[in-house]
């Protein structure tokens, strides 16, 4: 007797459809599991055996061969338990195979037959949809997450006994489809909107008007930014407010981010797509593999968890040189490819890099020399800054000095630009970008390159003279030259200008602080 059902596993962050084939033949009672399973999958045989018996079904006392196809792909995880049990029950005639046709089965079985949730449901259901499957059976705790995709019938079951009752289809989830994205009614959560009772606001920051403007420019064009200043000037506080001036995620972006967090097992609310842009702040002791991803079976790292959001690296020179250097390729390509013997996975990594550092090891270079004198010599300062390579600094568009505010600035009662006001300006600038790049595969100014960069960032004679003088005097690289043009284009968008003017270009050049320090 032969039977076959469909299940899935994760390959990186993407779902991979797996066919679970079962053959029951005469012979000594034993179960052979083939198809390159890992330890967790091999152990599923005992879970399935106990679950079938404890749910009043009969486990066949025959020779059972279970094959997971394609056989050359390494299988890991516990998501195959339900499919293996269903295939055995269907092949032995205890469950109708008609109800399992065009159906994806996912779930981990407990010994009593109840189902436990598994990570990565959204990615696996998405793969099922792309392969033409129309129905999915999942544990009840994964049902809300599976229902986030439209045009998929989701059936939630609590235990193996309910598998035989699917002919009645009594437990189909009610779904409400809006604009092609399935939004099941739910109570408001922190992921629903970015404007939901924001605790952090730029209006709380006294002074630092120039730094706020630089951060607004970074948000408008998705440019990388580095804040440099003494301790206690508000660098970390400012960057932690960056998400409050980023545009809300589109449905496509929200789906991409939710898939990454689902596959990583970090999805806190399975009932809704993530609507708040990620903000990741790893400690400076992080390894290269944890930062960009890795492992025997590759898993996403911090650069992928920050996809469509902000990756904040505080105390940038304290990170290991190896960890910082592996950031260069993800920043440039907006994706990272991890190659291992078992698999090669590509993870998205389109993030805004925001970093902070002190100007010297003691932190007080350029501060008040009377109250906080710098104790670092020139060689010590050079050694400290040399931890940041030139190629990495080239990929950071804005190098912004954060001065220590005076007591008068702290106590003045003048109106400070709020996050809502800054966001309004950012959205206006991004609206201009969307109109300009209509029909192109470009979302923001930071993606401009090649011939398109020269065309859309064309300079007049005055601007050419300014950039030429700066290029020679500051010793800029070609990459820094292009990033200045992109930055000037964003500044012009914030000023509602169709063309880059001398003021826009001059402001963009002044944000290359670490380049100026080499003059």
TrEMBL record:
It comes from the Bacteria. Residues 221-406 form the AAA+ ATPase domain. Keywords: ATP-binding, Nucleotide-binding. PANTHER family: COMPETENCE PROTEIN COMM, MAGNESIUM-CHELATASE SUBUNIT CHLI. Belongs to the Mg-chelatase subunits D/I family. ComM subfamily. This is Magnesium chelatase family protein. It comes from Paenibacillus eucommiae.
